């Protein structure tokens, strides 16, 4: 299909934005692990209390919620609730043959909104600020999906 190749700059923009979001999700998991190891707490499962190279001194309190670790888990969960919708809606949007500038603004606007959401969450900013960045990303995804529906039924 002529729209799904790297000769199509809209597809290329989508691939870059979608790949950045893959890296964001994967990095968030690593951030959670880093935080668990840093504080030696916030482990997720009972088997994490088995003695090993990483956890040399298991303690049942390691399973208690640790906000430093849990904050990263919440950011990860939020990514997993939002980014897959972007992957799908963005791909469907590419299939509509949209204007390049519009596609770039939407794709990279979503990436910027997710990164701003991450920074706001990681630095414990107000819910209102975090919600603003979430809303920007959410509206972009809804537009992508709505545009795809409009083109499909037109």
What does this structure look like?
By secondary structure, the chain is an all-alpha fold. The protein has one domain (9-153): Four Helix Bundle (Hemerythrin (Met), subunit A) (Up-down Bundle), CATH 1.20.120.550. Helices cover 71% and strands 0% of the residues. It has four helices and no strands. The protein has helices at 9-39, 67-94, 100-122, 127-153. α3 (100-122) packs antiparallel against α4. The longest helix is centred in the N-terminal third of the chain and has 31 residues, at 9-39. The mean pLDDT is 95.
The CATH class is Mainly Alpha
**What structural class results from the helix and strand content?**
mainly alpha
- The tally of structural domains comes to 1
Count of DSSP-assigned helices? 4
What would you call the shape? elongated
What is the CATH architecture term? Up-down Bundle
CATH superfamily placement:
Membrane associated eicosanoid/glutathione metabolism-like domain
């Amino acid at each position: 299909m002529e729209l799904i190749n790297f000769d199509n700059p809209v597809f290329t923009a989508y691939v870059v934005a979608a790949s950045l979001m893959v890296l964001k999700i994967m990095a968030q998991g690593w951030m959670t692990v880093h935080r668990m190891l840093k504080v030696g707490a916030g482990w997720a499962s009972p088997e994490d209390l088995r003695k090993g190279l990483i956890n040399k001194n298991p303690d049942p309190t390691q399973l208690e919620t640790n906000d430093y670790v849990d904050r990263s888990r919440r950011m990860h969960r939020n990514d997993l609730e939002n980014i897959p919708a972007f992957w799908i809606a963005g791909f469907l949007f590419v299939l509509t043959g949209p204007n390049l500038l519009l596609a770039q603004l939407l794709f990279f606007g979503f990436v910027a909104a997710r990164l701003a959401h991450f920074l706001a969450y990681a630095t414990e900013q107000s819910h209102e600020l975090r919600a603003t960045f979430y809303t920007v990303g959410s509206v972009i995804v809804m537009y992508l999906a709505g545009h795809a529906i409009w083109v499909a039924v037109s």
